[in-house]
Design brief:
127 residues, mainly beta, globular
């Protein structure tokens, strides 16, 4: 059974850093693109960053470019999101999701492109 578990969220001050992890089990990670999404209270879920199944292609929302870095370690079946220079507007529940894209260099940011989701981890940035 495909399962994703996020960790690494927490409370951080403006300008701080966090590294989120997405641990995958029950499927072959290197056949899936992985995306990170976030949802703030009262707002729609939005794509933050994604990485192709091979790791060769990455994608970032304009709001996080230059501050966030996505990476994956297929051997460890884990995908990471390094978040630096955090801002209050980065606050929200962060979710990782998997989309089956074997052999494709594709990393989308639309929630509808992903099939399986984790339970989310809360990130709060205080000013």
């Amino acid at each position: 059974q495909l399962q994703l578990v996020e960790s690494g969220g927490g409370l951080v001050q403006l300008g701080g850093s966090l590294r989120l992890s997405c641990a995958a089990s029950g499927f072959t990670l290197d056949e899936y693109a992985i995306g990170w999404f976030r949802q703030a209270p009262g707002k729609e879920r939005e794509g933050v960053s994604s990485i192709s199944s091979s790791g060769g292609t990455t994608n970032y929302a304009d709001s996080v470019k230059g501050r966030f870095t996505i990476s994956r370690d297929n051997a460890k079946t884990t995908v990471y999101l390094q978040m630096n220079s955090l801002k209050p507007e980065d606050t929200g529940v962060y979710y990782c999701a998997a989309g089956w894209t074997p052999g494709l260099e594709y990393a989308g940011l639309s929630p509808g492109e992903y099939d399986a989701w984790g339970q989310g981890t809360q990130v709060t940035v205080s000013s």
